[in-house]
Amino acid sequence: MNSEAVNESELIRTDVDGVSTLQLNRPNRRHALSLSLLSELETTLQSLKDDRSIRVVVIASAGPVFSSGHDLGEMQQRTEEEYSTLFATCARVMMEIRSMPQPVIARVQGFATAAGCQLVAACDLAVAVDTAQFATPGVKIGLFCTTPMVPLVRNIAPKIAMEMLLTGQPISAKRALEAGLVNRVVSEEELDSTVKELTTAIVASSRRTLALGKEEFYTQLEMTEEEAYARAVSVMTKNVLEHDAQEGMAAFLQKRTPVWSE
Question: Per the confidence metrics, is the pTM higher than 0.85?
Fold first, then answer.
Protein backbone atom coordinates (compact mmCIF):
# COMPACT_ATOMS: atom_id res chain seq x y z
CA MET A 1 0.00 0.00 0.00
CA ASN A 2 1.34 3.40 -1.01
CA SER A 3 0.40 6.67 0.61
CA GLU A 4 1.81 10.16 0.83
CA ALA A 5 1.17 12.60 3.62
CA VAL A 6 0.39 16.24 3.01
CA ASN A 7 3.45 18.47 2.75
CA GLU A 8 3.80 19.82 6.26
CA SER A 9 6.18 22.65 5.50
CA GLU A 10 9.63 21.83 6.82
CA LEU A 11 9.29 18.04 6.82
CA ILE A 12 7.71 15.83 4.18
CA ARG A 13 6.72 12.30 5.17
CA THR A 14 6.13 9.69 2.48
CA ASP A 15 5.15 6.10 3.34
CA VAL A 16 5.61 3.40 0.72
CA ASP A 17 5.41 -0.35 1.36
CA GLY A 18 6.66 -0.31 4.93
CA VAL A 19 9.25 2.44 4.42
CA SER A 20 8.70 5.95 5.78
CA THR A 21 10.87 8.61 4.14
CA LEU A 22 11.24 11.86 6.06
CA GLN A 23 12.52 14.59 3.77
CA LEU A 24 14.02 17.72 5.29
CA ASN A 25 12.37 20.57 3.44
CA ARG A 26 14.19 23.86 3.97
CA PRO A 27 16.09 24.20 0.68
CA ASN A 28 16.37 27.98 0.98
CA ARG A 29 18.22 27.49 4.31
CA ARG A 30 20.34 24.51 3.19
CA HIS A 31 18.03 22.23 5.18
CA ALA A 32 19.25 23.80 8.42
CA LEU A 33 17.83 22.22 11.57
CA SER A 34 15.67 25.01 12.93
CA LEU A 35 13.92 24.52 16.25
CA SER A 36 10.62 24.11 14.41
CA LEU A 37 12.06 21.46 12.07
CA LEU A 38 13.66 19.60 14.96
CA SER A 39 10.38 19.69 16.88
CA GLU A 40 8.48 18.37 13.89
CA LEU A 41 11.07 15.67 13.34
CA GLU A 42 10.87 14.66 17.00
CA THR A 43 7.07 14.45 16.91
CA THR A 44 7.12 12.44 13.68
CA LEU A 45 9.71 9.97 14.95
CA GLN A 46 7.69 9.47 18.14
CA SER A 47 4.57 8.72 16.09
CA LEU A 48 6.47 6.25 13.91
CA LYS A 49 7.60 4.21 16.91
CA ASP A 50 4.17 2.66 17.35
CA ASP A 51 3.28 2.49 13.66
CA ARG A 52 3.23 -1.25 12.98
CA SER A 53 3.01 -0.68 9.23
CA ILE A 54 6.44 1.01 9.11
CA ARG A 55 9.52 -1.22 9.24
CA VAL A 56 12.24 1.19 8.09
CA VAL A 57 12.71 4.97 8.24
CA VAL A 58 14.81 6.93 5.74
CA ILE A 59 15.94 10.49 6.45
CA ALA A 60 16.62 12.42 3.26
CA SER A 61 16.75 15.83 1.63
CA ALA A 62 17.30 17.27 -1.84
CA GLY A 63 19.80 19.55 -3.51
CA PRO A 64 23.54 20.02 -2.91
CA VAL A 65 23.25 19.94 0.90
CA PHE A 66 21.89 17.17 3.12
CA SER A 67 21.82 19.50 6.12
CA SER A 68 23.98 22.45 7.12
CA GLY A 69 23.31 21.91 10.82
CA HIS A 70 21.71 24.44 13.15
CA ASP A 71 20.27 27.57 11.59
CA LEU A 72 22.77 30.28 12.56
CA GLY A 73 20.23 32.91 11.60
CA GLU A 74 18.13 31.74 14.56
CA MET A 75 21.03 31.41 16.97
CA GLN A 76 22.22 34.95 17.52
CA GLN A 77 21.46 36.96 20.64
CA ARG A 78 19.34 34.33 22.36
CA THR A 79 18.95 33.64 26.05
CA GLU A 80 20.66 30.77 27.82
CA GLU A 81 17.26 29.08 28.17
CA GLU A 82 16.58 29.39 24.45
CA TYR A 83 19.97 27.93 23.53
CA SER A 84 19.48 25.09 25.99
CA THR A 85 16.04 24.34 24.52
CA LEU A 86 17.46 24.20 20.98
CA PHE A 87 20.35 21.88 21.81
CA ALA A 88 18.22 19.70 24.08
CA THR A 89 15.60 19.30 21.35
CA CYS A 90 18.31 18.31 18.89
CA ALA A 91 19.70 15.77 21.36
CA ARG A 92 16.23 14.28 21.88
CA VAL A 93 15.83 13.84 18.11
CA MET A 94 19.10 11.92 17.94
CA MET A 95 18.07 9.75 20.88
CA GLU A 96 14.67 9.11 19.29
CA ILE A 97 16.48 7.73 16.26
CA ARG A 98 18.53 5.48 18.50
CA SER A 99 15.62 4.25 20.63
CA MET A 100 12.92 3.70 18.00
CA PRO A 101 12.36 0.05 16.99
CA GLN A 102 12.74 0.64 13.27
CA PRO A 103 16.18 0.89 11.65
CA VAL A 104 16.85 4.44 10.41
CA ILE A 105 18.87 5.10 7.25
CA ALA A 106 20.42 8.42 6.27
CA ARG A 107 20.25 9.07 2.52
CA VAL A 108 23.05 11.59 2.06
CA GLN A 109 23.00 13.30 -1.32
CA GLY A 110 25.19 16.28 -0.42
CA PHE A 111 27.15 18.10 2.29
CA ALA A 112 26.38 17.16 5.91
CA THR A 113 27.85 19.64 8.36
CA ALA A 114 27.70 20.26 12.13
CA ALA A 115 24.31 19.02 13.39
CA GLY A 116 23.72 17.68 9.87
CA CYS A 117 26.75 15.44 10.32
CA GLN A 118 25.40 14.60 13.77
CA LEU A 119 22.15 13.46 12.17
CA VAL A 120 24.01 11.11 9.82
CA ALA A 121 26.06 9.70 12.69
CA ALA A 122 22.94 9.15 14.79
CA CYS A 123 21.27 7.00 12.12
CA ASP A 124 21.73 3.23 12.18
CA LEU A 125 22.88 3.11 8.56
CA ALA A 126 23.98 5.71 6.03
CA VAL A 127 24.37 5.74 2.26
CA ALA A 128 26.18 8.68 0.67
CA VAL A 129 26.92 9.88 -2.85
CA ASP A 130 30.59 9.97 -3.77
CA THR A 131 30.55 13.78 -3.85
CA ALA A 132 29.21 14.16 -0.30
CA GLN A 133 31.37 15.69 2.41
CA PHE A 134 31.09 15.64 6.18
CA ALA A 135 32.28 18.28 8.63
CA THR A 136 31.97 19.58 12.17
CA PRO A 137 33.11 23.16 11.50
CA GLY A 138 31.79 24.89 14.60
CA VAL A 139 35.32 25.65 15.83
CA LYS A 140 35.68 28.09 12.93
CA ILE A 141 32.98 30.33 14.39
CA GLY A 142 33.97 29.88 18.02
CA LEU A 143 31.39 27.20 18.74
CA PHE A 144 32.84 23.74 19.31
CA CYS A 145 30.60 21.00 17.89
CA THR A 146 30.10 19.38 21.28
CA THR A 147 26.68 17.82 20.64
CA PRO A 148 27.58 16.56 17.13
CA MET A 149 30.65 15.01 18.76
CA VAL A 150 28.52 12.58 20.80
CA PRO A 151 27.34 10.27 17.97
CA LEU A 152 30.39 11.07 15.81
CA VAL A 153 32.88 9.59 18.26
CA ARG A 154 30.61 6.57 18.68
CA ASN A 155 30.90 5.93 14.93
CA ILE A 156 34.52 6.63 14.07
CA ALA A 157 37.98 6.42 15.62
CA PRO A 158 38.67 9.12 18.24
CA LYS A 159 41.65 10.60 16.37
CA ILE A 160 39.65 11.04 13.17
CA ALA A 161 36.80 12.58 15.15
CA MET A 162 39.22 14.92 16.92
CA GLU A 163 40.72 15.98 13.60
CA MET A 164 37.27 16.88 12.29
CA LEU A 165 36.32 18.69 15.50
CA LEU A 166 39.59 20.59 15.98
CA THR A 167 40.17 21.67 12.38
CA GLY A 168 36.61 22.01 11.10
CA GLN A 169 37.85 20.64 7.79
CA PRO A 170 35.50 18.35 5.84
CA ILE A 171 36.26 14.74 5.03
CA SER A 172 35.28 13.12 1.75
CA ALA A 173 32.65 10.43 1.34
CA LYS A 174 35.47 7.95 0.68
CA ARG A 175 37.17 8.77 3.98
CA ALA A 176 33.81 8.73 5.77
CA LEU A 177 33.32 5.19 4.46
CA GLU A 178 36.78 4.13 5.57
CA ALA A 179 36.20 5.71 8.99
CA GLY A 180 32.85 3.98 9.49
CA LEU A 181 30.59 7.04 9.36
CA VAL A 182 28.70 5.69 6.33
CA ASN A 183 28.01 2.17 5.08
CA ARG A 184 28.18 2.71 1.35
CA VAL A 185 29.36 5.35 -1.10
CA VAL A 186 27.76 5.31 -4.53
CA SER A 187 27.23 7.50 -7.56
CA GLU A 188 24.30 9.90 -7.65
CA GLU A 189 22.54 7.58 -10.08
CA GLU A 190 22.90 4.64 -7.70
CA LEU A 191 21.82 6.40 -4.51
CA ASP A 192 18.11 5.57 -4.54
CA SER A 193 18.59 2.00 -5.75
CA THR A 194 21.17 1.37 -3.03
CA VAL A 195 18.87 2.73 -0.32
CA LYS A 196 16.08 0.61 -1.80
CA GLU A 197 18.31 -2.46 -1.68
CA LEU A 198 18.82 -1.96 2.05
CA THR A 199 15.18 -1.15 2.84
CA THR A 200 13.93 -4.15 0.85
CA ALA A 201 16.22 -6.48 2.76
CA ILE A 202 15.12 -5.03 6.10
CA VAL A 203 11.39 -5.01 5.30
CA ALA A 204 11.58 -8.73 4.50
CA SER A 205 12.48 -9.56 8.12
CA SER A 206 10.34 -9.75 11.24
CA ARG A 207 9.64 -6.30 12.67
CA ARG A 208 9.72 -7.68 16.20
CA THR A 209 13.09 -9.35 15.64
CA LEU A 210 14.57 -6.21 14.10
CA ALA A 211 13.38 -4.13 17.05
CA LEU A 212 14.88 -6.58 19.52
CA GLY A 213 18.15 -6.70 17.60
CA LYS A 214 18.51 -2.93 17.33
CA GLU A 215 17.88 -2.43 21.04
CA GLU A 216 20.36 -5.11 22.05
CA PHE A 217 23.02 -3.89 19.61
CA TYR A 218 23.23 -0.51 21.32
CA THR A 219 22.76 -1.89 24.83
CA GLN A 220 25.69 -4.29 24.64
CA LEU A 221 28.02 -1.61 23.27
CA GLU A 222 28.07 -0.02 26.71
CA MET A 223 28.98 -3.31 28.44
CA THR A 224 32.13 -5.29 29.02
CA GLU A 225 32.51 -8.34 26.79
CA GLU A 226 31.60 -10.65 29.66
CA GLU A 227 28.49 -8.64 30.51
CA ALA A 228 27.52 -8.49 26.84
CA TYR A 229 27.75 -12.26 26.45
CA ALA A 230 25.69 -12.86 29.58
CA ARG A 231 22.96 -10.56 28.32
CA ALA A 232 23.14 -11.94 24.78
CA VAL A 233 22.65 -15.51 26.00
CA SER A 234 19.56 -14.48 27.96
CA VAL A 235 18.07 -12.40 25.15
CA MET A 236 18.78 -14.94 22.42
CA THR A 237 17.24 -17.74 24.51
CA LYS A 238 14.02 -15.74 24.88
CA ASN A 239 14.16 -14.74 21.21
CA VAL A 240 14.43 -18.30 19.91
CA LEU A 241 11.31 -19.27 21.85
CA GLU A 242 9.22 -16.57 20.17
CA HIS A 243 6.87 -17.27 17.27
CA ASP A 244 8.88 -15.47 14.62
CA ALA A 245 12.09 -17.38 15.34
CA GLN A 246 10.29 -20.74 15.34
CA GLU A 247 8.42 -19.74 12.18
CA GLY A 248 11.60 -18.54 10.49
CA MET A 249 13.47 -21.76 11.17
CA ALA A 250 10.53 -23.86 10.01
CA ALA A 251 10.14 -21.80 6.83
CA PHE A 252 13.84 -22.15 6.05
CA LEU A 253 13.74 -25.92 6.45
CA GLN A 254 10.52 -26.16 4.44
CA LYS A 255 11.88 -23.84 1.74
CA ARG A 256 9.01 -21.36 1.97
CA THR A 257 8.53 -17.69 2.80
CA PRO A 258 8.02 -17.10 6.53
CA VAL A 259 4.85 -15.53 7.85
CA TRP A 260 5.82 -13.08 10.57
CA SER A 261 3.68 -12.12 13.53
CA GLU A 262 4.21 -8.46 12.58
Answer: yes
